[in-house]
Amino acid sequence: MEIATNGISINVISESNSVSADKTPILFLHGFTGSCGDWSFLFSSLNSKCFPMAIDLPGHGKTRVPNNAENFTTDAYSDIIKFILDYFNISKVILIGYSMGGRVALSFAAKNNERVLGLILESSTAGIEDKRERAIRIKTDNKLVDKLLKEGIDPFVNYWMDLPFFSSLKSLADEEYAKIVLEKRQNSTNGLANSLLGFSAGKMPSLWSDLNSLSIPTLLIAGSLDQKYVRINREMNQLIPNSKLEIVKGCGHNTHLENREEFIILVNKFLNNLESYET
Asked: Domains of the chain: which residue ranges?
């Protein structure tokens, strides 16, 4: 369904238009070049007490926002999550975010602790602390934007999927991999460009100094082949008081597509044990 507010149309998928009082809402947030459909395979396999939802973030899928820089910032993404929660009359939610979506989830949770029941962050980060590294990352992402705008969506998706991060995805069946690529090509050139310009890891405010005060039960997930994010998530796990790290063997950056069964097991285990986490 499409939910409109202030000139913005947000695409949402859910099992119904309202949340039952006896169910716990879960909001899924996709990664860069993804969409809400990336998560639909999970919905029927989740704990039956949960109410799963997913949205297309600005610049992605069927969500439409004005072509202004302010619609692609950390605050703009947080405002959309707030609006969705208020629209469905949700006081507290479990957020599950992959990569960029994990950064969105963590950014929201850091400022809205009272509205988040639990966090699952897959292959994500708390941002970049070092100013020099941030500047380098912004420069790199600006080059990606130039490439995207010059070459168009199809060549860019091909380039993006050929990055070492995603090499293990190619171990999937040809038909399944082709479907993933096709869905990424449904995004708009300008939308992805704006997303990079407004919410790259370089533009996102660093949250590393906030992690030790984050009291929300948190599950961190990374693939064993993704050495960079294994290291990052080990550091995050040491800083977040109420967190647990799970490393999925034989997977790269996208564990939920490379090993769906294991990802579902980890998510359900977290959901089933949520009440036992120390708070």
From this structure: 2-129+206-276
